[in-house]
Amino acid sequence: MVATVTSAGSAGQPCRMRIPAAHTCVMELTAWRTFVTACRLGSLSAAAAELGYTQSAVSRQIAALERRLGTSLIERHVRGVRATPAGEVFHHHALVVLKEIDRALTAVRDVPLGRPLNVGATPSLAAGIVPAAVRRLVDAGGPLRWSLSPGLSADLHDRVIAGDLDVAVVTDAPPGLPHGPRVERRFLGMDEMVVVLPAGHPRAGHGPVHIRALADETWVEDNTGSATLLRQHAARAGVTTDVDLGAADLPGKVALVAAGHAIALIPGVLAHALRTDVTTVNLVDPPTRGIYAVTPRRASHPSAGPLIDQLATAFGQHRQPSPEAMGPTVPSGSHPRRDATSHMR
Fold it and tell me: Which distant-in-sequence residues (6+ apart) come within 8 Å of 116 by Cβ?
């Protein structure tokens, strides 16, 4: 009896490996990991160094794997090794298998202590709102093992689908949130954007300020979403703003403001967590962004719901909109003004 693995080879042609079924149950995962590591590093010696083996041990493991599969998986070249067409096919499947095995081992180890709650959040939300909500959750319900992963909304959305995150706290800032049948979204509230200034700026301590008064300033932004909100807001006021400086991330953007190089648009939820050498000023009719909690439709972590309730309370949102009431996401920056208990339309 044989098992046949079929996939597209590097030239687009079907690539088949006939694997004896008995052998599929006994292949050592050590060899699988060694092969995957050698492919990633492109070198048997580098794989040996990373895994703590000798180079000959790495060669033997891969050779044994090739004998069991009945095909060559790697070929040597002047700079190291690369996967053969059959090796590319096996590499794809090996990555999937090893990832699931690692998840299984982690899940088993976590049974006595409870599985950790894996939370993702955009950088501005991870800087204060989310940790504070977890603190209230712990105070109310006792110790909780959890982790926090900052990231961009679209990436966090994908990680929820992939099963890496139990809940992601994201925004609909441009380019907006994707829609997908495998996740559920709960609207938490609206966040008004503010302008961050150097502490000695002439506008510091005054406000709200109309964007026309700031249009000629030097602006810095760290992502296209925030820059789009700024340009949309200025356009509605009949002026233009130039984003003259770029920053790698939110702390870098604020650092440029603190040094007096520019001013910037930042989320209102971040205002209380800023460094002391900058200040914020409110805008007249400010741009806004919706805040959402995204969870998988499958059975979620038991602490995900209580955490989302804590977040909703923090945003003053005490009722969850129904999916019918949610409708399509309103384009970023054009949300109607609403009171604290209204829903997305």
Answer: 110, 145, 146, 147
Question: Is the pLDDT reported for residue 166 higher than 90?
Answer: yes
Distance, in Å, from the CA atom of 326 to the CA atom of 333, rounded to the nearest integer, reads 17
User: In this structure, are residues 145 and 113 in contact, taking their beta carbons and an 8 Å threshold?
Assistant: yes
Smallest CA-to-CA distance from 251 within 155, 127, 119 is with: 127
pTM for this model (two decimals):
0.59
How far are the Cα atoms of 180, 209, 232, 243, 285 from residue 332, in angstroms, in the given order?
Answer: 19, 21, 9, 19, 14
Asked if pLDDT for residue 199 goes beyond 70, the answer is: yes
Collapsed DSSP state (helix, strand, coil) of residue 308 = helix
Task: Please give the DSSP secondary-structure letter assigned to residue 285.
Answer: S
Q: Is 16 helix (H, G, I), strand (E, B) or coil?
A: strand
pLDDT value for 29: 85
Report the DSSP pairing between strands 288-296 and 183-198. antiparallel
Query: Six-digit token pair at 299?
Result: 């059975």
State the Cα–Cα distance between residues 161 and 168, nearest whole angstrom: 10
State mean pLDDT over 96-124: 82
**Cis peptide before 331, with omega less than 30 degrees from 0?**
no
Task: Tell me the residue length of the chain.
Answer: 345
Distance CA 173, CA 153 (A): 9
For residue 16, give the nearest of 31, 4, 1, 3 by alpha carbon. Answer: 4
Nearest to 146 by CA among 306, 292, 318, 312: 306
